[in-house]
Amino acid sequence: xxxxxxxPKAPVLLCGGNADPTVxxxxxxxxxxxxWSNPASPLALPAGLLTVLDVDxxxxxxxxxxxxxxxxxxxxxxxxAAQGGANAVVQAYHGSLVPPFCNVAARAFFQQVxxxxx
Length: 118
Known about the structure:
Blueprint (H helix, E strand, L loop, with lengths): L11 E5 L12 H9 L12 E5 L12 H49 L3
Parallel strand pairs: 1-2
């Protein structure tokens, strides 16, 4: 599955974790972010259509709309590590750790889009 060649017409949230051993963040999310955000790209989107969330990143502070999601993910990841070490985190990362946090983020994102009339 590829987004290359598809041009969104409505707001899009790309969500994932940078340490995902199944879907490589840099080769997928970061690539599409670059293609859709770079004004020189033929696939560039209008400003405001693309939001990218790496749940496995530090919060950007009080203005970060995903600060709670990132904090929750960090806690869940630490909990998995405490129970089974680094291997437990790798095993759970794609299928168990990231999805619930991206789901929460997507729900909040699209509620905001609908509320703003987008």
